Prior knowledge:
single chain; Rossmann fold; four-stranded parallel beta sheet; about 40% helix; about 15% strand; globular
Amino acid sequence: MSTASEAIRFSDGDAYERFMGAWSRLVGASFLAWLAPAPALRWLDVGCGNGAFTSLLAERLEPLSIAGIDPSEQQLAYARAQPSLREAQLLQAGAMELPFGAAAFDSAVMPLVLPFVPVPGRGWPRWRGWCALGAL
């Protein structure tokens, strides 16, 4: 049993792919179809993990740029190996410590990540500052 003080982390990109990858892409595709974002936006994926959802951004939205952060270097290594993410900037960082300046992105997403953020209320005002259009 885990407690609120324990950090929950996914560290194996291959295992995550088998466990959640297909589901992340299926739900992500429906989410993007519903959202219908404009092309040529600068995207940030907070908690990008192995890149399952980040790949959808790259493949379907014709983004101007994509950045992703995740605390797991192993997950990021898996994401960096994905052909659709060759141009993405994928950095090791947590949701509370974004390594970007203000208004660096047009849109930010955190699919499946919010329950794992230690103090989401403290991070929200800062996250909104990264995006010119707002966080999704």
